[in-house]
Write a structure and sequence with these properties.
heterodimer; A: about 325 residues; mainly beta; five-stranded antiparallel β-sheet; about 45% strand; B: about 160 residues; four-stranded antiparallel β-sheet
């Protein structure tokens, strides 16, 4: 029984295929047009009466094969310059096979573009294997030289990552560009150039309007933030003056300012309580709001022994924060 | 075994439509098809001229002209002569095709000039047919005298 079922299923498939072929199934349409290798067959039929007898006759069938058009587009996927700091950075591009045949593309990333204020080092080119547009080390495929994509079907789109290393010594707001080029493996050149027998099934390949070569630039801008801390003190003695005498209260203010562009991460401000003074409990404030002395949910801790510690986290450039606390002068 | 037998039967069934109508005598009318590529060249003065050439490399967007030569090689006039040409799926009728050409947009069921034909939308309404909708073209001649011959052509663009 099992054998019969299988046999029938296989036959049904074959019969269906035969029907579809016989019905002159529409050629697949895609952006690049009719798929390369498609045979265009034209036959005319004439009908007429000969001495009152209806007759028909077919012409010969003219067959012509659609050749392969080599076309592609390459665009940067980064909406603006990628923030760069010394170290690794990733530029994203989108490569589309706009041709009508399967084609692989050679990739080349040039980090030395005219007008660059600094040049990065290209470490690798990677293909977004899981199509999530995010570079993931160990998941996305790193290309080895010569850096060439897999064969892409017509209309296929791939995200390409260019991994670069930003050198030390770049200054804030300096910019750089990396130019990625993609070229059809079959060849490139002036539109209309023919690569005889270079296409699908031994057909020709013809260079399309893109020249079968496309370039796109990804841009980087150094975003270097600098942190400046300014500490000041005001004194209030028991006599209404400002003398630094035992019993006087000293209020310290630490102004933290982040300049430049970008942001700094995990910014922590610490300060020891000066010798000969004790911390006045409950006086720690961040931007005039009191934060508790204990290690708890808020940003700060303070004690005479451990000093003052305030974690500001990620702070964007252009931000100012103020930390204040009081100490009592004991001797 | 069953598999092979049934496949053979299926193959035979598929072969059937290709069997020529051997019982009839030779046709007095001959039909001969050909295809040319339309090549546009721009002269030094910027003027464009087109010529029909043997197709070389062809890609989507290229223009072709399908032609059919007919001749009445018999001794008697034939009547009600109709040449019907289904368009290959990979091409569409070029916009510069003769507006008076008799075309069909429904697989050869109904015929007319393109401007008079409509195509049904999925929502039940109809829209004017376009060149890309044409499925068949045909030419109708009342008679062909003995020894007379002619040629019919239609231009297409590869989809």
């Amino acid at each position: 029984m099992t054998t019969y079922t299988r046999t029938n299923t296989a036959l049904a498939t074959i019969a269906l295929l035969a029907l579809l072929t016989g019905a002159g199934l529409s050629a697949p349409a895609n952006a690049g047009g009719v798929t390369a290798g498609t045979l265009i067959e034209n036959t005319a039929v004439a009908s007429y009466d000969e001495g009152g007898t209806p007759r028909t006759i077919n012409s010969n069938t003219v067959t012509i094969r659609v050749d392969e058009l080599l076309d592609l587009t390459l665009t940067s996927l980064n909406p603006g310059p990628v923030a760069a700091r010394p170290g690794e950075a990733v530029l994203s591009f989108e490569l589309t096979n706009q041709g009508n045949g399967p084609e692989a593309f050679k990739l080349n990333a040039n980090p030395a573009v005219a007008g660059n204020q600094f040049d990065v080092t290209v470490t690798s080119i990677a293909i977004d294997t899981n199509a999530n547009a995010i570079y993931e080390p160990g998941i996305d495929l790193l290309l080895t030289a010569p850096q060439t994509t897999a064969v892409l079907a017509p209309d296929a789109v791939r995200t390409v990552f260019v991994l670069v290393r930003v050198p030390t010594g770049v200054n804030d707001t300096q910019t750089s560009a990396v130019e990625l080029t993609a070229e059809a493996v079959t060849g490139s050149g002036a539109p209309g150039k023919i690569y005889a027998a270079g296409g699908v099934n031994g057909g020709d390949a013809i260079v399309g309007t893109s020249g079968a070569l496309a370039a796109a630039r990804g841009r980087l801008a150094a975003g270097l933030a600098a942190v400046k801390l300014v500490k000041s003190v005001s004194l209030r003695d028991p006599f209404g003056g400002t003398g630094a005498v035992p019993g006087a209260i000293a209020t310290f203010t630490i102004a933290a300012s982040v300049s430049g562009s970008g942001s700094v991460a995990a910014l922590v401000v610490t300060d020891a309580i000066p010798a000969g003074t004790t911390y006045v409990p409950g006086t720690l404030k961040l931007d005039a709001a009191t934060i508790s002395d204990a290690a708890d949910g808020d940003a700060g801790t303070a004690s005479t022994a451990a000093g003052v510690r305030v974690a500001l986290g990620t702070v964007a450039a252009g931000t100012n924060r103020a930390i204040t606390f009081d100490v009592l002068i004991t001797k | 075994m069953i598999n092979r037998k049934m496949l053979a039967a299926l193959g035979a069934a598929l072969m059937l439509p290709l069997t020529p109508l051997a019982a009839q005598s030779a046709s007095p009318v001959s039909l001969s098809g050909d295809v040319k590529a339309v090549k546009t060249t721009t002269a030094a003065d910027g003027s464009e001229r087109t010529e029909l050439v043997e197709p070389g490399a062809i890609v989507p967007g290229d223009r072709l002209v399908f032609g059919t030569d007919y001749a009445n090689n018999g001794a008697e006039t034939v009547t009600n002569f109709t040449v019907t040409n289904p368009l290959p799926a990979a091409v569409r009728l070029a916009p510069d095709a003769d507006a008076a050409l008799s075309v069909s947009v429904d697989g050869g069921k109904t015929w007319g000039e393109l401007a008079a034909l409509k195509v049904a939308n999925t929502d039940g309404t109809a829209r004017p047919a376009s060149h890309a909708d044409v499925t068949h073209v045909r030419w109708v001649l009342a008679t062909i005298a003995p020894g007379a011959k002619g040629r019919v052509t239609y231009p297409v663009i590869i989809r």
